[in-house]
Each structure stands twice: as structure tokens, then as C-alpha cells.
Amino acid sequence: MDSQTQQTYWVTGASSGIGKALTLELANQGHKLIISSRKREELDKLSREFPELIKVIPCDVANSKEMQSLFSLNMPELQSLDGIFLCAGVCEYIDLPNFNLDVFQRVFSINYMGTVNSCAAAYPLLNNSVLLNQNTKPFIIGLCSMSSYLGFPRAEAYGASKAAMAYFLDSLRADIGDRIDVIPVYMGFVKTPMTAQNDFPMPFLISSEQAAKGILKKITKRPLRINFPWRLHLMLSIFTRLQRFWYSFVIPRMRRSGSFS
Ligand SMILES: NC(=O)c1ccc[n+]([C@@H]2O[C@H](COP(=O)([O-])OP(=O)(O)OC[C@H]3O[C@@H](n4cnc5c(N)ncnc54)[C@H](OP(=O)(O)O)[C@@H]3O)[C@@H](O)[C@H]2O)c1
């Protein structure tokens, strides 16, 4: 790949699932990558596959203090970033009647504050890419979720954190969209370690490789948002127009028996 087309991207949540699949896809395309997550060993394994292209910077995205100096401490030579893929996230469910407040704190600190911390850390470098007058507009891609279209059982923490994340990205676009593209990705079900815990049917389930390829294909057109896969998006979009039907007929069949005792 020549230096004109080779880009430098940051991928968070790169140790597993969609972030790992994006890392492999982008490295195979010849781009330079900085990859992050908490588990250094997993990141190092990826870096060993592409030693010329991948640099590892482990971090906890929920740690605002650590995130503030992430690049200046670990990679002071880095001048700019062409794009970032925010894949770090966790899913924990609520089992009512226990409003487990620790779960709310944890999920919001990683999914919502982790996104804010990551954008704050990368913003100066994305902005430098604009100032250096490079050919392509830099971007922020955030992995949101179709779970925020409608209320799902047990998703009081996870779904709400993803809705907050999506709103944050929309608002960020309103402020910086003239210079940096901000694109929330509303993902459907993807087979990853995160969804391995799900004990309910996951319609239109795709692999993490399909998810990565689909996201990379769709961002070439720089849409305002990506909804993927489209079949689940269509199905849930219809239910957003038929909310009484969703809450009265679909949801009771999804509820765990006895979960609201
Ligand atoms: N899979 C789906 O069906 C689906 C659907 C909609 C949206 N999403 C979203 O897509 C993203 C990726 O999910 P996935 O399915 O690929 O899950 P995954 O396989 O569990 O990967 C999650 C990644 O996030 C990292 N991570 C978690 N907490 C972190 C923290 N505090 N700091 C830094 N990194 C952290 C994990 O690495 P470490 O443990 O090494 O930190 C891991 O690399 C998530 O934001 C998820 O909400 C997934």
C-alpha cells in the first residue's frame, strides 16, 4: 500500500469480537493501527501477526484520568489519526426486582463515559489530520446498538447506555461534523463473546467478520448512521411504529418467566 492510501486508525475493544475482526480486516488492507483494550496479551497476539502495522496501547476506557494522557504518554510521536473505531463495550443485564446499581454504574462508565473519554483522547489527533490538510475527512465510528430503538427486557442498563452513546455521537456531529465525520453504527446481533451469554433467540445473527466487512463497506459512503444488518433494522423499525403491539404481544414472549416476580 502506498503512503497516499495508507491510513492510521485507532481501534478500541480490539482484543475480541467486532473490534478484533475490524483490526484484522484493516491490517490485511495494509493500514497502520493503534489497538486498545484492557487485556494486553490478546492485543500483543494481534500485533505479532502484523508487527509493522499494529502498535498496542492497553487502556481502560472508563478511566478518565488515564485516557486524558493516553497518546501523549504512550505515543508522543503520533501526529494525527485518520479515524477511530470505538468498539470497547460491555453488556450486563438487570434481573428485577434487583435494581443492581453497580451494574448501571459499570455499564455506563464503560459504554457511555468510555466513548466520551475515547473521543476526548483522540480529538486533537483527528483535528490535526484536518489541519494537515489530508485528502480524506477523518472519522469517528461508534458501535451503538439496535437495542436502543425500543425497550428490551433486562436491558435497562445496556440499552440505555447505548442510547446515551448514540445521542452523544449525534450531538458531537452537530458540533464538529463539518471537519470530522461522526457515524454511530446501530448493530444488530453479532456472534461474539459478548452475545455468548444471551439465552434468547437472536434473529439475523451475523459473524464478527461479516460485521467488520459490512461496517467498512458502508463507511466508504460516509452516511450519517449505519444500521446493520438491514433486515433486523427493518423489522425493529416497523415495531417502533407499532409500539403497543411490541409491548403487549412481542415483549411478553421475550420475558424470562418469573423474572418479574
Ligand atoms: N455483539 C453484538 O451483538 C453487538 C450488538 C450491538 C452492539 N455491540 C457493541 O459492539 C461493541 C463490541 O462488542 P463485541 O460483541 O465485539 O463484544 P466483545 O467481544 O465482548 O468485545 C468487547 C471489547 O471491549 C473491550 N472492553 C471492555 N471493557 C473495556 C474497558 N473498560 N476498557 C477498554 N476496553 C474494554 C474488551 O476487551 P478487554 O476485556 O481486553 O478490555 C473487548 O475487546 C460493544 O460496544 C457492543 O456493545 C455488539
Description of the molecule:
The protein is an alpha/beta fold and 261 residues long. Helices cover 45% and strands 15% of the residues. The protein is built from nine helices and nine strands. The protein has a seven-stranded parallel beta sheet, sandwiched between helices. The longest helix has 31 residues, at 101-131. The structure holds NADP nicotinamide-adenine-dinucleotide phosphate (NAP). NADP nicotinamide-adenine-dinucleotide phosphate is lined by residues 12-19, 37-39, 42, 60-62, 87-91, 110, 114, 143, 145, 187, 189-190, 192-195. Residues 12-19, 37-39, 42, 60-62, 87-91, 110, 114, 143, 145, 187, 189-190, 192-195 line the site of NADP nicotinamide-adenine-dinucleotide phosphate.
Number of strands: 9
Ligand types:
NADP nicotinamide-adenine-dinucleotide phosphate
CATH class equals Alpha Beta
Cα-to-Cα separation, first versus last residue: 59 Å
Going across the major beta sheet, what is the strand order? 3-2-1-4-5-6-9
H-E order: EHEHEHHEHEHEEEHEHH
**Sequence stretches where pLDDT stays below 50 over 5 or more residues:** none
Mean pLDDT across the residues is 95
Under the CATH scheme, the architecture is: 3-Layer(aba) Sandwich
- Over the alpha carbons, how many angstroms does the gyration radius reach? 19 Å
CATH names the topology as Rossmann fold
CATH superfamily: NAD(P)-binding Rossmann-like Domain
Name the shape in a single word. Answer: globular
